[in-house]
Design a protein that fits this description.
With 595 residues, the chain is mainly alpha-helical. The protein is 46% helix and 2% strand.
Length: 595
C-alpha cells in the first residue's frame, strides 16, 4: 500500500476486452499472475465485506464502490470508464434500474433488493461453450436475464455445469460472491466452481471443461431476435409498435410483454412457434406448470427473472410479435388477444387481476388500455337496456339480498363466490337498477361501507360471464321484494344505529326461566342479532360490534360469540327480541344502549 492507503501499481495487467465482465477479467488477471482470485482481489484493493473472514468484495461484478474503483485504478492504471464498463451498472438506466444503489450505509440491503428486483445474474453467468473454446473471456451481457442465445454460434447459452450441478461462474459453495485465497490457481478452460469436500474427495475446483459443455442449436430467427435485443442494449435505436422509444422504455415494454406471455401463452402458441427449439418450449411449459403448483415464492411470480437461458429464449420468441411489431395495428391485434385471456383469468373464482402488480410502460399503455375490456362491461349492459319502471328506491334495499333469492337467482352468475359477498353485490346491483349511476354511488345510496362495496364490485363483477342474464335475474330479485311488500330499510338502519346493548330487563324476562345468565356480552350479541333481523345487513356491521366496544377481546372472538348466540337462540328469546326491536322502530328515540 502507498501513503494514501491504495495498492501499489502492478507490473503487468491484462487488457480488458470490449464487453468483458469484471469477474472474467479478474479471473484472467489471477491466472496471469499465478495467484488465487482472492489474492488478486486483495492486490487490486477491492473493498470487501468486513464481517466475513473470506474475501467477499462488495457488489462484486455489479458496481464498484468508490474505494474499490480507486484501488483498481491505482493498481492497474486503467481508466475509470474502462473499469466501470465491466460492471452490470453499465446497463443502469436502460435494461437495469439501479435506483437506490447510492444510499449510504445500506450496502448489503440495497444489493439484495436490487438482486431480487432486476433481471440480471448477480452471482453467476450464462455462457456459450463455443465462444469459450476460442477465448476465456466471459462477456458482460451473458449475465443479463434475457441472455438466451449466442448470435454468432446460434446455440442456447448454458446455465449450469453438469459435473458440479452449480450455475456457471457461481464461485464457491454457500458464498457465490466469495473469492478463495487458498492455493487453487485457476485453469481458465475449466468450470472452476468450488466443490464441497466429501468422504471420497477433498474440496477443490470443478474440472469440467467449458468447451465440452453440450449445446443446443437454435433457428436463425431466434438468433436474430437475440441480436436485435443486444443492439438496443448497446445503445442502438429502439421501436415499440412502430414508434421510436428510448432503451429504458423498450426494456420496460419487454418486461411487461414477457410477463403477459408467461401468464397467458397457450400450448398451441408454444408448439407452433417456429423460432423455438424443443428445449426452450419444454423449459417454458415446465415453468408454467411449476408456477401453477407453487403457492407463493418466486416460482409463482410470472414477473420474476427467467430462470434459465432456455426459458428466456422462449419468452423472447413468444413476446416478439408484440415487442417487435412493425406498426401499431399489428401490436394492437396481438395485445387484444393476450388481454382477452387475462380477463378470463380475472374471472376465475378467487382470482383478481394478475397483471395489476406489473407497471404498464407508457409506450404500451394506450394499446393495453384499448385491448382490455372496460370496467363497465357489466354496468354497460344495464345502461344500454330499454328503461323499465322501477317501483322501489335504494331506501327499500337491505345491504344483503335475501339468502334464498340469491341462491336461486344470482349465485350461478358468481361461481366460487362466498355467499355473503355475492349477496352484497346483489344489493348493490339492485341499487343501480333503482337509479345509481355507478357502483360507488350505489354504495353511497345504501349507506354501505365503501371498502366492502369496493371489494364486492371490483372483483366479483369480473366473474359474470353473461351480463344480460345477470341483470334480468336482478330485475326478478327486485320483483320478488315488491311482491313481499317494500320495507324502508334505510329508516330501520337509522332507528337502530345506536343499538349497542339490549336492556338487562328485556333479556332477563326470557333468559332466567331458561337458566341463562344475562351477561354484558349476551346483551351485546342480542343487540347485534336484533339489528341484523330488522335491517337485513351483515351482522358484523352491527353497531354492537363496533371495534371500540370490544377492546378487551379480538374480533374473531366477538364473531365466534355472536355465532354461538345465534345458534343457541331459542324461540322465546327470538320473539322477545323481535318485539323489543319493533318498539324501537315505532319509537326511534329509544334505539340507544339499554341500561
Amino acid at each position: 500500500m502507498d501513503s494514501r492507503g491504495l495498492p501499489r501499481r502492478l507490473p503487468s495487467v491484462p487488457v480488458p476486452l470490449e464487453g468483458e465482465s469484471f469477474p472474467s477479467w479478474l479471473s484472467r488477471a489471477a491466472a496471469d499472475w499465478q495467484i488465487t482470485p482472492g489474492r488478486a482481489a486483495q492486490a487490486l484493493g477491492l473493498e470487501c465485506h468486513p464481517r466475513y473472514t473470506g474475501v467477499r468484495p462488495l457488489w462484486f461484478g455489479t458496481s464498484l464502490t468508490r474505494r474499490s474503483l480507486q484501488g483498481v485504478e491505482a493498481a492497474t492504471g486503467l481508466d475509470a470508464q474502462v473499469i466501470e464498463a465491466m460492471q452490470l451498472s453499465r446497463y443502469a438506466g436502460t435494461v437495469l434500474d439501479f435506483t437506490g444503489r447510492e444510499e449510504a450505509g445500506r450496502q448489503e440491503e440495497n444489493y439484495f433488493r436490487l438482486r431480487n428486483r432486476e433481471w440480471a445474474l448477480f452471482s453467476s453467468s450464462r455462457a456459450c461453450p463455443k465462444c469459450l473454446a476460442t477465448t476465456p473471456v466471459w462477456p458482460l451481457w451473458w449475465r443479463l436475464g434475457m441472455a438466451a442465445v449466442c448470435p454468432e454460434h446460434r446455440v442456447l447459452l448454458v446455465d449450469t455445469c453438469p459435473q458440479c450441478s452449480a450455475r456457471l461462474g457461481f464461485g464457491y459453495t454457500g458464498h457465490p460472491r466469495g473469492l478463495t485465497t487458498r492455493d487453487l490457481i485457476l485453469d481458465l478452460d475449466l468450470c472452476n466452481n468450488r466443490r464441497p469436500a466429501s468422504r471420497r474427495r477433498k474440496a477443490g475446483l470443478c474440472s469440467q471443461k467449458l468447451a465440452a459443455l453440450p449445446t443446443v442449436p437454435v433457428p436463425a430467427e431466434l438468433a436474430d431476435l437475440q441480436q436485435r435485443f443486444l443492439d438496443i442494449v448497446g445503445g442502438g435505436p429502439a421501436q415499440v409498435a412502430g414508434s421510436p422509444v428510448t432503451p429504458a422504455e423498450f426494456f420496460a415494454a419487454m418486461r411487461f410483454t414477457a410477463s403477459v406471455v408467461r401468464l397467458v401463452a397457450t400450448s398451441d402458441e408454444i408448439n407452433s412457434c417456429a423460432a423455438l427449439p424443443v428445449a426452450a418450449a419444454q423449459a417454458f411449459t415446465t415453468n408454467q406448470q411449476e408456477r401453477l403448483l407453487a403457492r407463493g415464492g418466486r416460482l409463482s411470480q410470472f414477473q420474476a427473472i427467467p430462470p434459465s437461458a432456455a426459458h428466456a429464449a422462449a419468452v423472447l420468441a413468444l413476446s416478439a410479435p408484440a415487442l417487435f411489431a412493425p406498426d401499431r395495428t399489428t401490436c394492437q391485434s396481438v395485445m387484444t388477444a393476450w388481454m382477452d385471456r387475462t380477463v378470463a383469468l380475472r374471472r376465475t373464482p378467487g382470482k383478481s387481476d394478475p397483471l395489476r402488480p406489473i407497471p404498464r410502460p407508457a409506450c404500451l399503455e394506450p394499446l393495453v388500455r384499448a385491448a382490455v375490456l372496460p370496467a363497465s362491461r357489466v354496468a354497460g349492459v344495464l345502461a344500454n337496456r330499454p328503461p323499465t319502471p322501477i317501483l322501489f328506491t335504494a331506501d327499500h334495499l337491505p345491504h344483503l339480498a335475501d339468502a334464498d333469492d340469491y341462491t336461486e337467482l344470482i349465485a350461478r352468475h358468481l361461481p366460487g363466490t362466498a355467499e355473503m359477498s355475492g349477496r352484497r353485490l346483489a344489493a348493490l346491483a339492485l341499487a343501480r337498477l333503482a337509479g345509481a349511476t355507478s357502483w360507488q354511488r350505489a354504495a353511497t345510496a345504501l349507506a354501505m361501507d365503501s371498502v366492502k362495496a369496493f371489494r364486492a364490485t371490483n372483483t366479483l363483477v369480473q366473474r359474470i360471464s353473461d351480463a344480460g342474464a345477470f341483470w334480468r335475474d336482478i330485475e326478478r330479485l327486485g320483483a320478488r321484494a315488491i311482491e313481499r311488500g317494500l320495507i324502508d330499510y334505510a329508516a330501520r338502519r337509522r332507528a337502530l344505529a345506536e343499538l349497542t346493548m339490549v336492556p338487562h330487563a328485556v333479556l332477563f324476562e326470557v333468559c332466567h326461566p331458561l337458566g341463562r345468565d344475562v351477561t354484558e356480552q349476551r346483551r351485546r350479541h342480542a343487540a347485534a342479532w336484533t339489528w341484523q333481523h330488522f335491517t337485513g345487513g351483515d351482522v358484523r356491521d352491527a353497531p354492537a360490534y363496533a371495534p371500540d366496544l370490544w377492546t378487551a377481546v379480538s374480533r374473531s372472538s366477538v364473531r365466534e360469540g355472536g355465532r354461538r348466540f345465534s345458534t343457541w337462540l331459542p324461540e322465546p328469546v327470538s320473539h322477545q327480541l323481535t318485539a323489543y326491536g319493533q318498539t324501537l322502530l315505532d319509537s326511534p328515540t329509544q334505539g340507544k344502549t339499554g341500561a
